Predict the 3D structure of the following.
Amino acid sequence: MIIPVRRISHLLRTRAGRFLGLNKDPSTQAGSGTRIGLFVSGAFLVAVGLLIVLISSLLVVLAIPLLLFGAFNLLNSRRKQLSLSRSNLLSLSGHLCATVVLYLLFTRILWVTYMTDSIVGSYMGVLKVLAFQNPYGYSIKPFLDQFSFSPSFYTPRVDGSFEFHLNYPALNFLSLLPLYVVGLHDLRDGVFVFHILSVLVIFGLVPSRQKALSLAPFVFFPAFVASSWTDSVWAFFLLAGTVLWYRNRNMGLLMVGLAGATKQIALVAAPFLVIRLWQESSGSKLRNTLVGTASLVAGFLGPNIPFMLSSPSQWWVATISPYLPGGVVEVPGGIGLSGILLRVGISPPPLFFVVLMGLVGIGSLYLYATRYSKSRYYVWIFPVMILFFYYRSFPNYIFYWSLPLALEFFRNRPALSIWHFSPFRGIALRPTIAVGLHSLRVRLRVPLLASLLLTTIFVGAYGVYVSSSPPSKVDVQINSVSDPDGIGAATLLNLTLENQTPKPITPSFFVYWLYLPFLWSSNSSRTLGPWSSSSYIITATDGVGAVPRSTSFRVYVFDANTGNLVGESLSLTPNIPLPAIANPHFRWWTLDVGAGTKVPFGWKLTKTNVDQLTPVIQGLDQNQTTGMSLHLNYSTPAINIEKIMISQKILLNATTVNFSLFDPAGTSTGSRAVLGVTVTDGAHVLSYLFSNTTAKPAFLTSSYNFTSMVPIAASAWTTVSIDADQAWLSQGWAVPSQVTFTIFLQASSIGLYSANIRDIAYPVSGQVSL
């Protein structure tokens, strides 16, 4: 058999040239859009390089090539003689380079662990399928614990519980399964592969003059993937559906069904695509529409069939029931209407948003069907409009529609006039005087009527909601705000609730100050009777949910029985004093995404020559009520020192403290491991080394360093006092605005080492410090 190597090679070169935009005449000059795309690519490279420099001076070597490449692209974008093919090649190379480096920077250094419970659910799905089990019958809670998630990272329900089910269809994890099997065990890497494929598809299929600019909308998406958003997967299937639409519409709809089998929100586009199929069909429109709809349904059901047959009820409860009226309601919020209303103290029930979505959806379908010729390429805008009114309108539900929209936009090059974006009849941007106001009024009639109709629907629906219930069901009074454990944020609220209705309620409490309301726990689960009042003490579930000092917040009270909002407090800004040392008793713990484990809130964990996912810190007891324990398992003699550090920035005058610590006999300076404290401003270093083999204090000084050997008892709880403030001043060093206060444990010999610290306190009057 003769293999036509030359013919295959020529074909590959031709396809590659077309993909890169090199099939054009080399003398073809880059236009303004191409230059803008090249400029954005250069700015992207420079931004990533500067971010690397800001994160760590040790990575400057990596930042320099990025900065030089970015500067090269920026300068080329301003050249008068710039060929189109060269600009496209530089734009793609720069964008991919910056994208990969930014993703690796986030996932390997800044965010080394998962950050959302949705990707943990996908991870559970992959593992359960590999074990030949149905993942819909299991809770994700053990896997959340495996990744050290604290409650603020869970999805709360308005009844005070958390959502621990896998709520997405089967392709959500099945699509990542092959990549996991071949070695991409961090699911974010698999999602990143889908993102890169999507970018390459868009770049390869848009016209040459649009290629460089088509990359610009996606500069932030590597950060989205690194932050554990899995939406690149369903967006890839939507993009594949867009590509295949022009070859085989049924295959395009099949891909949209697969997108819905990955995440249900992708199906919002299905009715619009069915209308598009009807409009573009030749021959029997009804037959083609029925076949296309069957393809879409097959795409959705196909990957789910094994799990539906295994346990229909579990699959239904996990993937369909949460999105139907009457299900357990999750906490509202987002960047859409629900988030806007929540910020001003209004939270209608989910049914209100369902009705509003339905009305907007019907209106959008009508406009798309009746103004099809103007809006055919903007089919992907309508789902964004509908999801804006969803009661959980998260950014990822909105942003990822830009992938298929970008392909349609750059490929078909519709007019850029804003009026041509809409399905309404266009108007001239500068009507002549002869046309006058009459022509403007006539041409604006449809959009104005549509806007008034939507406004009337919204106001009317909300008026019905408001009038159907008393103006104030429960009066919420904040009596006090406190920070009893000194973490620098409000962790405890004293409330009084007054039930002004004839029905009892079971209150659940949410504190809203950031993006979504955080569930807080209450000291009482009793029902509040009709026409009665009661006081409650509510506490943040972890430090992330605590209200930062000088940050405005509200308290929302939901009825756990009905899921309805029954009351909210007035906005309040807590006057929490700034603690000298945050969380000195180590009672508050939360997930440190940079360390991949729970750490005391307000403290930063750093590891040297220790695997990022190796657990090195934990609370002294199972409930982490106070104290911490540091652990080192030195097992690689080729490495000189393994070191773990926990630190925070404080004032110098706050470094006169007492430590209550337990130093095992195996942890001692001069032996195999050292427990100590450092205070530094970046130039000068004070070091306190705790030793159970030293009988008397010892000191070693130099121009920029001061080291004190502090004797302690072996294998016994000891209180040690240090006065870094006085030691610093005695050296004659300038007083800095802040210093880094660090507790560390290091080892240089094979063994298992540990040290326990119960708390940090300030010495009583008359106590001598070192």
User: Anything to note?
Assistant: Confidence is low (pLDDT under 50) at residues 415-446, 464-471. The first strand starts at residue 155 and ends at 156.
